[in-house]
Specification:
Layout (H helix, E strand, L loop, with lengths): L1 E5 L3 H11 L6 E6 L2 H11 L3 E5 L7 H6 L8 E6 L7 H5 L3 E4 L4 H13 L3 H17 L7 E6 L2 E6 L5 E5 L2 E6 L2 E5 L3 H7 L5 E5 L2 E4 L3 E8 L2 E6 L4 E3 L5 H10 L3
Parallel strand pairs: 1-2, 1-3, 3-4, 4-5
Antiparallel strand pairs: 6-7, 8-9, 8-12, 9-10, 11-12, 13-14, 14-15
Length: 252
């Protein structure tokens, strides 16, 4: 069984390492001190189980899982210092967690449960339960995207995206003068993004509303939309209702 350890506290990581070394069938494939490197390492090394701290600076444990494609979700044992009553959300979905400071007996039991999740059917069930739990702990909108940037996996924060363009089978995220390809349809992205912040103005364009500087009328409910990054995009009649709702919403 291949295990990855993710915790921003060096002593906590060392504690998990020392305990795992007692199990001959467990191979430690890496340690991570932050969420960004955790996402990269999970995608690179495909561990069977991840010992994942919930509270970390930057990207927390929940955001790490949200940034992963569903098919890449490993079995997860959460490491947490949360009070017991907060853990009811985990119990509802029968997810596994270890309360800090970690107890040796509970740790051994968690490793035993992780072994049972190695087969594909159990991992699929675990992934389903993780997704349900994540839905309960968010507003349901995408907050981050995982993209390939050369040989690296990079996290793009949704609110940093200025506009999105269709690019064949991909969507192109434009952020601070750079662009990133995401294998997802525009229709899927429109559903995942907060409509209070992002507007689809054309079949091939989604823009962040706070970046709109100017609308120039063209004809019959069509506009040229100028954004704060200097780019200009043509809206279409098909999506005119989205733009008109925003104009009348008072969120300008």
């Amino acid at each position: 069984m291949r295990a990855l350890i993710v915790d921003d506290e060096p002593l906590a990581r060392r504690g998990v390492v020392l305990r795992l070394r007692k199990f001959r069938d467990v191979e430690i494939v890496g340690e991570c001190a932050d969420g960004h490197s955790a996402v990269e390492r999970i995608l690179e090394r495909s561990p069977d189980v991840v010992f994942l701290d919930i509270q970390m600076p930057g990207i927390d444990g929940f955001e790490v899982l949200r940034a992963l494609p569903r098919e890449s979700l490993p079995a997860v044992i959460f490491l947490t210092a949360y009070e017991q009553h907060v853990l009811r959300a985990f119990d509802v979905h029968a997810l596994h967690y270890l309360l800090k400071p970690v107890d040796d007996t509970r740790f051994a039991a968690a490793v035993s449960r992780a072994r049972d999740l190695v087969d594909s059917a159990s991992k699929a069930d675990m992934a389903q339960r993780v997704m349900k739990m994540l839905d309960r702990t968010s507003d349901g909108f995408a907050s981050r995207f995982t993209v390939q940037a050369g040989s690296r996996i990079q996290i793009v924060i949704a609110e940093d995206v200025e506009w999105i363009g269709a690019a064949g089978d991909y969507a192109e995220l434009h952020v601070n003068g750079r662009s990133y390809l995401l294998r997802e349809t525009m229709a899927s992205l429109e559903q995942r993004l907060d409509s209070a912040k992002f507007i689809r103005i054309h079949r091939s364009r989604i823009v962040q509303s706070k970046g709109i500087l100017e609308l120039r009328s063209i004809e019959n409910r069509e506009f040229t939309v100028k954004l704060s990054d200097g780019s200009e995009h043509r809206s279409s009649r098909t999506y005119a209702d989205r733009l008109e709702r925003w104009l009348s919403s008072g969120r300008i």
